[in-house]
Design goal:
alpha+beta, MetI-like fold, 2 domains, 15 helices, about 50% helix, membrane
Length: about 425
């Protein structure tokens, strides 16, 4: 160390020559932009009038910017914590499997994808239509496995027909039915593709001891059919629950067969018929990931998908340096695996976890690409963050680069404390 200081004192010009290119680049790419941003934040949109701290006052009085700041706080708390936690879990678990290298490669692979490409990928993943969006395809599969789906979600009563829509979504025939007289219950609005496998509708048999009837799609392509009459080309609506209701109570129920007919026992005589609402409820299409309520968690999920591999690699490198004899000694003393992990592994990995956490905190403060690409225009205000607001304020409609520069300065002020904490931690590590 002393010899190095001696060289600096003896040949300061040589040191200056080596440092000059780096200092020039540092000044041009870092110092000057920071200084100009601070200066520009003190002027109005035109850059001609000095306004002092008015632009900073605008930041905390503008609802959009305050919402962006609130979202940034959510990002700082949630995204680094979840990504670091997943990275820790992956790093510890991969120590116990033979195909650890392949697993790490798969988890780390998203880091090779740009934020723009990842945003496009997750914009498709979060599509509302389950036929296109992977997330909702998985949700609807699980939901339909346990809850089932409605039979004919699009079917509706004919506007001038005998059925009326009830508040609970069921369709009611208000005229009491009589045993031995077949009942016709026409429905419309079922798309033709849904009827491709349906059988032709049939007229129910007459049975004096039963209430019979038919539920069918009362529409013939080309308009050749007659209303309220079962025409030869019209299709049956099978699997619909028909209930006989008397004084608000269901006295009998049956499901329509493949030909659309149903049969109820004599108890249904004189009752009203109701087509149960569960036959017509709209299908479950999953969550509205790109809606205002879930857009921020959805984008954080995309970020975690990308950066948990980064956390895993760094933590795995730190885990490789953990003394194995310490872990074995704890096991010999009777500690179980959870106690070894919580009381020994995690404390020894504390410095590495700190590096990962701080790095990701700095990274999420600058998050822009994912939010801009994934959030649709209808939800962009709900997903807004400071970096995106900086862009919108500086270059969007009604651009005001004074406010944009003030947001840039605010971002710098938010990053500085995190950097100071990181530098202090590094100095403590170097002194050990």
């Amino acid at each position: 160390m002393e010899s190095g200081k001696a060289v600096i004192r003896a040949r300061p010009w040589a040191v200056a020559c080596f440092l000059l290119p780096a200092l020039v680049l540092l000044g041009a790419l870092v110092i000057y932009p920071i200084g100009y941003s601070i200066q520009r934040s003190l002027f109005d949109a035109s850059g001609d009038t000095f306004v002092g701290l008015d632009n900073f006052q605008e930041i905390f009085s503008n609802d959009s910017i305050r919402h962006a700041l609130r979202n940034n706080l959510i990002w700082i708390v949630v995204a680094p914590t979840v990504a670091t936690g997943l990275g820790l879990i992956f790093a510890v678990l991969t120590e116990r499997i033979r195909w650890a290298t392949a697993f790490k490669l798969v988890v780390f692979m998203p880091m090779a994808i740009s934020m723009l490409a990842a945003g496009i990928i997750f914009r498709l993943v979060y599509e509302q239509d389950p036929d296109r969006g992977v997330a909702n395809a998985m949700l609807t599969t699980v939901h339909d496995t346990f809850s089932g789906t409605s039979t004919w979600p699009d079917a509706q009563p004919r506007p001038d027909g005998p059925l009326t829509v009830q508040d609970d979504g069921s369709y009611l025939l208000e005229q009491p039915v009589t045993a031995g007289t077949p009942v016709l219950l026409p429905l419309v609005a079922v798309p033709q593709p849904e009827l491709s496998d349906a059988e032709p509708a049939a007229t129910a048999a007459t049975d004096p001891g039963q209430v019979t009837g038919t539920v069918w799609m009362d529409f013939t392509r080309g308009g050749a059919g007659a209303e309220g009459v079962i025409d030869p080309e019209e299709k049956a609506l099978s699997g619909i629950t028909v209930e006989a209701v008397r004084d608000g109570e269901v006295v009998a129920a049956a499901k329509t067969g493949d030909d659309g007919t149903f049969s109820l026992p004599a108890e249904a005589d004189g009752a009203q018929l109701r087509l149960a609402s569960d036959s017509f409820t709209a299908p479950y299409n999953g969550a509205e990931w790109l809606g205002p309520d879930l857009i921020t968690p959805a984008i954080i999920g995309a970020y975690v998908w990308m950066w948990s591999g980064f956390a895993m690699v760094l933590i795995a490198a730190g885990l490789a340096s953990v003394p194995r004899e310490t872990l074995e000694a704890a096991r010999v003393d009777g500690a179980n695996e959870w106690q070894v992990f919580r009381r020994i592994t995690v404390p020894l990995l504390g410095p590495v976890l700190g590096v990962v956490l701080v790095t990701l905190m700095i990274n999420v403060l600058k998050i822009f690409d994912l939010v801009y690409i994934i959030a649709p225009s209808s939800s962009q205000a709900d997903a807004n963050v400071l970096a995106l607001q900086l862009y919108l304020s500086s270059f969007g409609t009604g651009a005001d680069q004074g406010v944009g520069s003030a947001i840039a300065v605010l971002l710098l002020l938010l990053v500085v404390p995190v950097m100071i904490v990181n530098l202090r931690r590094l100095r403590r590590e170097n002194k050990r």
